[in-house]
Design goal:
Strand order of the largest sheet: 1-2
Distance between the termini: 96 Å
Helix content: 55-70%
Number of helices: 13
Shape: elongated
Structural class: mainly alpha
Length: about 290
């Protein structure tokens, strides 16, 4: 028995070498496999070792970004590797990668944020924060229709719950319209954080409390949907805000309909006849509805 072991080991080794040679021959005979082998061999992330000179002192950020791009955006990964091999600085890489990811529908503004998950815009309105009115003074005339104002004490702004309920009722009615009033409806939904889109309804502080989306294919697709929808909503919000501020009659109509609801709020079986007049020479009849 002992004398047969060396022969058995020799036989097994020969078979292993033959198998390896056969696989190598097959690989080299296929151009696609050859290309894949070359790409894997040249890929600096094929192992944990660093065989590339990373720019300046931001090595960790660059490596995190490369690992994410390698999996999520192979084309951008290739472009980043080419830039590194040509001596790109960190700032140049930051600009290249962020711009390329933004072109994919993801609002990456700073390379340092890539390791925290997919970034999402945060457009949310915070009506009890004085800084909100400093950044958006054009909403004050609209909120004044609801009896809300940052004055006289901008550091103690109280928004009654009924205000949100009335604004939601008005917005739901306006969203049935087809003209500028519909955009005003989206404006009210945004002001009361009721659009149903997380980017439109939350500010940065609130959005940061949620678990960020990962860089896998499903979450990237979901993030694109959120961003695309948010862009559409905010376009209507800005258009509605600009329009109503340019037309005092529209502000008067909004205030009048709000007062109708305020006056009958709490009445049993209350019904509200809301009227939305045509503004600026429109040939359409005034829109009326009963809520």
């Amino acid at each position: 028995m002992k004398s047969s072991l060396p022969e058995l080991n020799k036989y097994s080794t020969n078979k292993l070498v033959q198998t390896y040679a056969l696989l190598a021959k097959g690989l080299h005979a296929d151009p696609v496999l050859c290309l894949a082998h070359a790409a894997a061999w040249l890929d600096p992330l094929r192992s944990d070792s660093n065989d590339m000179d990373m720019p300046e002192s931001e090595d960790d950020t660059v490596f995190v970004a490369l690992h994410i791009l390698r999996r999520a955006f192979p084309d951008i990964y290739f472009d980043a590797l080419q830039a590194i091999r040509h001596g790109a600085s960190y700032q140049q890489l930051d600009h290249l990668i962020c711009e390329a990811v933004q072109a994919q529908g993801i609002p990456l503004e700073n390379l340092e944020w890539i390791g925290w998950g997919i970034p999402l815009p945060a457009y949310g309105a915070v009506l009890d924060d004085s800084d909100f009115y400093t950044a958006h003074p054009d909403v004050i005339p609209v909120l004044d229709c609801f009896g809300i104002s940052p004055e006289p004490n901008p550091y103690d702004i109280d928004i009654p719950e009924v205000t949100y309920k009335v604004a939601d009722m008005i917005a739901d009615d306006l969203l049935k319209r087809e003209n500028e009033w519909r955009q005003v409806g989206w404006l009210l939904k945004w002001l009361t954080s009721g659009t149903g889109n997380s980017s439109c309804d939350h500010d940065h502080e609130t959005l940061s409390e949620f678990q960020p989306l990962s860089w896998d294919a499903d979450d990237i697709a979901f993030a694109r949907e959120i961003v695309e929808e948010a862009d559409g909503i905010m376009a209507d919000v800005h258009a509605g805000l600009e329009w109503i501020n340019q037309h005092p009659a529209a502000l008067e109509a909004l205030a009048h309909n709000i007062q109708k609801i305020y006056q009958t709020k709490g009445s049993k079986n209350a019904r509200y006849k809301l009227e939305w007049p045509c503004i600026a020479g429109s040939d359409e009849r005034a829109a009326q509805s009963v809520a």
